[in-house]
User: Fold this.
Amino acid sequence: MSVELDVFVGNTTIMDEEVYQLWLDGYTVNDAVKVRMEGGVMDECEASKDVLLSDTMDQYRTFQMCERLLHSPAKLANQLLFQIPPHRQIMLIERYYAFDDTFVREVLGKKLSKGTKKDLDDISAKTSVTLKSCRRQFDNFKRVFKVVEELKGPLVENIRQHFLLSDKLARDYAAIVFFANNRFETGKRKLQYLSFQDFAFCAGQLISNWTVGAVDNMVEDMDVDLDKEFLQELKELKILITDKDLLDQHKSLVCTALRGKTKVFIEMEGSFKNLSRGLINIAANISLPLRLYPCRSDRWSAADMKLYLTHYTNSAHILDTFKHQVVWDRYMGVVKSCIFKMYHD
Amino acid sequence: MPGKLKAKIVAGRHLPVMDRASDLTDAFVEVKFGNTTFKTDVCPKSLNPQWNSEWFKFEVDDEDLQDEPLQITVLDHDTYSANDAIGKVYIDIDPLLYSEAASVISGWFPIYDTIHGIRGEINVIVKVELFNDLNRFRQSSCGVKFFCTTCIPQCYRATLVHGFVEELVVNEDPEYQWIDRIRTPRASNEARQRLISLMSGELQRKIGLKVLEMGGNAVVGYLQCFDLEGESGLVVRAIGTACTLDKLSSGSAPNTNTHMSPLAHGCRSTHNSPVHSVCSSQRLSQNFSVSVPTLIFTGMGSGGSAGKEAGPLRTLLRQQTQTALEQREFPFFTLTSFPPGFLLHVGGVVSARSVKLLDRIHNPDEPETRDAWWEEIRQEIKSHARALGCHAVVGYSESTSICEEVCILSASGTAAILNPRYMREGCLDIGCTDHRFEEPSPPNCGFCHIPYDELNMPFPAQLTYCYHCRRQKVPDVLFTTIDLPSEAAVAGKGCLIQARLCRLKKKAQGEANATAISNLLPFMEYELHTQLMNKLKLRSMNALFGLHIQISVGENMLLGLASATGVYLTALPAPGGIQIAGKTPGDLSSEHISSIQKRINDTIAVNKELYQINPPELAEEGVGSPIPEPRHRSRLFRSHSESSDELSELDLSHGKKDAFVLEIDDTDAVEDIHSLLIDAPPPTGFYSCNTENMPGISNWTSGVQMFTSVRVLRLSNANLTNQGLNKIFTDLCENLLKSFYFKLRSMIPCCLCHLNFTVAVPEEELIQVTVTAVAMTYDKEQTQEKTAEKPINKGQSLWSLEAEEQLQFPLELCADSSSSNIQTASKISGIINSASVDYGSFADRCSTWLELLRLKAHTIRRGSVKTSRRTQSLRSHIRAHTPPCISVTVVKMTPLSFLPGTRIIKYLGIINMFFIRETTSLREEGGVSGFLHSFIAEVFAMVRAHVAALGGNAVVSYSMKECVFMENPNKNQAQCLINVSGDAVICISETDQESSASTANTGQTGGSETDGAT
Assistant:
């Protein structure tokens, strides 16, 4: 005796958020049943294991049927097959496009190609995110990337409109797209301690200040490609370290301002040259903006760092022979906020 | 009378990719009606084509308008090869044919393909212009309204109830035609869908003609069924109740009297012509027939006490009524609930079954046999009703079960006496005379009073004086197929009671098979009845409503499933307990017996608590009528196959024994008792019933979730016993219920209403159970209120609906002649008298209630002026209030005739759809479950789309009448047929209406409509 067929269809599609999450997380039906049993849902309605199994199967089937629609979320709103209340639709989409920070950290800055997809089982093993879930997340990145690649207008807004995502999630996707497009490496050992959110913040800063879109908001890829003219101009900042006078002048100005305000003054004074060189070199070779690392020191507090960078930036304005004030501000504004973000434990 | 049908194809969206090379589609549309076809231009390389076509005009007879659907085919243009069909949409244009319903069909329809399912959507506008409105009723039956609802539809009033209408049409099933061997499955499915659509249209038109002949304008309780008889053909049959309905408008003072026209003869079908062109269709014939002895379910018990003689006038009146009804061939009513006062007495359930052998006949001129079969069964039902002293049958329905060439025809209903006041024209005067002589029957217990003569009872029954009015006799148990009358006095809550049974039978052919089946039937009926009775007692209840017994036949077994809603009627005596007895007094296992006895007693106590059955204690003294003699305990026999001799008369009462005893004489008996106790009560927060209203719950909130569930079990063990099968079948049903409770747990407190179980044996070792029901949330706080107070319970949908019905009554009385005033007075005093025992303050309440109703009348009047205006603006409201990204109208569906918290303001027409889905890639579609899951979802989607296109936002009285599933996993194939029906309506939120009526602000409506979808 066996159950040959077992379906339950509601006029309003019934979905359990907990089961949806298990499905998204790539649990098999049997594993999901186990998790639910441990969660104590059986006590709620005097349910048995069979009931739970049948319910889980039904829901998994429903989600599988919905998945096609979730690939283009706009369809979910005007399709006729499932009657899903609007707030549920939003939940479905938001959760489908949600991702694990540990997973995204692994693929951030990598090319979203077949090659990377082949590595997913390694990533799955490393992050203990199920392979199924890894695939979904990877495909989501790729899908969003593909759609917004050819669109004009602001990146975040495009993502939000095309995938009906919340502002927060749309910004995260913008960061992922940005990193994937520019192939900024984030896998360096030194950067391991940084979370996805740290990178997302930096990407946000870069998008709003350094891209083509920052000056012209009607070109293609405006928020994905960095402003090339700006990058050219950045090279000219080198004068701050190549010109000995300028360097000394700058140093004395900063040191005057800092003296007596911080415990690590001696160290700041001593490492000024290196620090300045580090910062300016990044500007000259922007493809790796995340070399900002040299600023990090065990003994400096976040406040110290802030103080130092503020004076470092402001002092440059006072330098007579330094003519690149606009570029300097555009550069240092982003660098400053990125460093602040990264400067945590 | 000709008319002009106009159709315009606007656009398509989400079309499938038909050209792999370009990932696009070159779509165009063919619009076909009758033999005329139009085409749109090809919209190249688009998955979201905009055709914006001209208006395609079809000039046609309205007969065709009724029969034919508009057929829209979406195709992919291919320059070099044949064009590929993407899918089809069939639009039934019937709703456009009467003025009160929809005026235009406009919206997005899913494009459906029988192999691929839904493939995109198409936006279509359809209109009909009928020439010469005045005369069209004469020529065809355009204009007759159809309702699936089995009560008088909410915004109508029945001025006349004409009675029973029936019709059937027969054709050859395209699936079994020779051409099917050479055509594709798609072509075959489409031929079948189209044929059934045509046949339903024809059937509806013919029924409509009969209604017109009788002078009516509507069919209520319209029930249409298909018999897929395989080789021998396809039968589409329908029954209904012809009525003259008046639309309730705010202006005219409603006249409450419903008459039954005494002159109209029940029209019977004459010839069932095959559809149109098909002239050589093979007809069906009967070459073997066994009629099964019929059971009459009523009260059980022993020796009735001698009762009072009925007054001579009363008898006279009864006779008059009887003659009025006897003029009809079949005094049957498919309605299950009635206006207050319509139903006088209820006798009990009457049912008839007959086993027939289907066979092709070779002489096409032979008269139709189907009609004769049904006529035979109806005659039997009629005579059973008469035996119960009743002149009418209410809650009447018919069904069939077919396996190979054997067919079981079943009919059942409730024998009843209807109010003579409703039988004649000009009834007001007579009504007054009636009242002087006939004792007023209190509305809350009157229907329980026995209609038959105590001295000449058709069966032994135990009678007592009514526990309410103490004047007339009532049985100790009452079984009916109707809904609980709204005015009935009940204690506690109701609950779903099911009896389940499996019986193995030998495989056989032809007559031997039919004989075997018909020999088994009486035993099955008997056992089902025994189970029902025991379970009823176990729940400490004394009446069953909505009883539906289905017997389904398979090759090697018969399945029986009886469902009903148990309730404690306070007018009936309290049920005695159940006593367990060993075969011999000094049995060794006496300890065992006493432990079972204890379990039973405990279960009864638990159930009493669970269903809150605390009947009012009767103060025996001070009641004028004689105290009923101490109740005898009736004895209940288990049935054994060996005891067939005793059972030949099917005397279910076992009257003269003095204990309600379950005898344990073998292991089977122990198992039976165990299986009795196996029914788990629903978990806390859940109630269940299979009727329109849940006894004891009325304060619904807006949460509504309709669902369909299908489960198929494969029996792997070939050597199953009856007992083992029973257990499997019972578990199957119980597990389904448990699954529902679990899935719907977020709706607690909630009630599963209208639980409709259908069983089938699709193949030798398969059992299929299909359930459709609706879960509705209610307000827990208010459930504690007494039944008597419910009418005052304002603002709750169900009761305010009812209050409204009743409202017509006092309204008229206030405005009308003095004679009717007397009537009210006496009526009210009747209530007071009857209720004096324990509802001392009822009189006060009653008068305040009348005040309240009067007040409400004004509100409603004002409200309904607004209503008519809002009707037109409703759709725009809905659009306006939905968030911009949501372009799909929310359509609620329910098997009930109402939606809680809302009021139906317009019926848009009947929905009657038939779909076939087939697959040759079963595994790829997720196996049988995946296949059926998506098909059911698609059917829901298509129903919703049609309703939305009609301008509606809900389907009431929805039912899935057929769900035939066939699979062949080895070939990776499956096929499924689904037939659904219901009434498309526009409903508006009750609170909206009230607020707008008082503030005269209509701008607020519609908003809560759309978000209320739970």
Q: What stands out?
A: DSSP finds 17 helices and 33 strands in chain B.
